[in-house]
Structure to design on (308 residues):
């Protein structure tokens, strides 16, 4: 019955090209049987096409029956259709599509999608531009010029005091257009699903209501850094300027590795606020929180033996 249905769809929709997984394109397989049926019953030549490889997860073929990866229908239901199409089109058809919905693959995929959209705005005739254009569902696609990076949207959603629409307008320097607002809402919906189901631990964070237990292990240099950082928090609303002041504070207390600021400096910020040694960009995170709350937390963490 499936072979008959396949042929009927070719005829009804006037299909001229159709790819299929390599398991269907083997000698004597489903596609070959359908081709013969189409020629015999419909008396037409079947559509041209080639086989494509499988979705893989860590080099293994996705198989929901074996608990590997996610069901194709689930990805299609949760991911925007143009993103699914982009995922398929960006990969040569006879290469495996390595995709892990439980890691950082989705943020990287959206970043790549955005780079393709930017390429289209710069030169619609380029190869990457063509991949973006063919992924769209409309005949005359035009990317919105302003988009918020997916990982930033995911960070915003984890700070209750942040209004993503207001933050987006602030980043743009003016009101969002209808298209930009719709794009942001789509990213918000997708980021909520990703955070709930697939985001790795390092991408998730919560600002702790009290000084985390993990701050017990702060080194003396990290405590001195937090004491200095408490003095600069709230002195500017510009993230770049605050980031520069944090770098200067780290150098003042000797948290450096050669000419670079040591990661231990910013790990101290995350440990004091989030209870983990990593998080979103420090200056942005501090800018979303009440300055007095941050100052008090840093001063508490800076005290020798604060949790002893």
């Amino acid at each position: 019955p499936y072979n008959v249905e396949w042929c009927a769809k070719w005829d009804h929709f006037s299909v001229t090209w159709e790819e299929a997984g390599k398991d269907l394109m083997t000698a004597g397989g489903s596609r070959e049987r359908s081709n013969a049926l189409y020629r015999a019953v419909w008396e037409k030549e079947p559509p041209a096409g080639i086989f494509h490889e499988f979705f893989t997860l860590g080099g293994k073929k996705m198989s929901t029956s074996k608990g590997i990866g996610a069901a194709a229908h689930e990805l299609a239901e949760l991911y925007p259709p143009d993103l699914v199409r982009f995922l398929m089109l960006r990969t040569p058809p006879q290469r495996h599509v390595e995709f892990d919905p439980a890691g950082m693959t989705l943020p990287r995929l959206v970043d790549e999608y955005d780079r393709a959209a930017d390429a289209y705005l710069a030169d619609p005739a380029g190869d990457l531009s063509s991949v973006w254009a063919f992924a769209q569902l409309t005949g005359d696609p035009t990317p919105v010029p302003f988009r918020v990076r997916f990982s930033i949207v995911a960070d915003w959603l984890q700070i209750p005091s942040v209004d993503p629409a207001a933050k987006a307008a602030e980043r743009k320097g003016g009101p969002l257009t209808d298209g930009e607002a719709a794009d942001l809402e789509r990213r918000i919906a997708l980021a909520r699903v990703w955070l709930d189901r697939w985001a790795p631990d390092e991408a998730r964070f919560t600002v702790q209501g009290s000084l985390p237990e993990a701050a017990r292990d702060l080194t003396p240099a990290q405590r001195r850094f937090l004491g200095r950082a408490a003095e600069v928090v709230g002195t500017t609303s510009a993230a770049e300027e605050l980031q520069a002041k944090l770098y200067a504070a780290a150098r003042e207390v000797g948290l450096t590795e050669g000419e670079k600021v040591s990661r231990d400096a910013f790990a101290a910020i995350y440990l004091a606020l989030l209870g983990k040694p990593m998080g979103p960009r420090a200056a942005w995170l501090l800018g979303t929180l009440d300055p007095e709350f941050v100052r008090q937390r840093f001063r508490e963490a800076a005290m020798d033996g604060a949790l002893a």
Remarks:
- The CA atoms of residues 81 and 216 lie 47 Å apart.
- The chain has a mean pLDDT of 88.
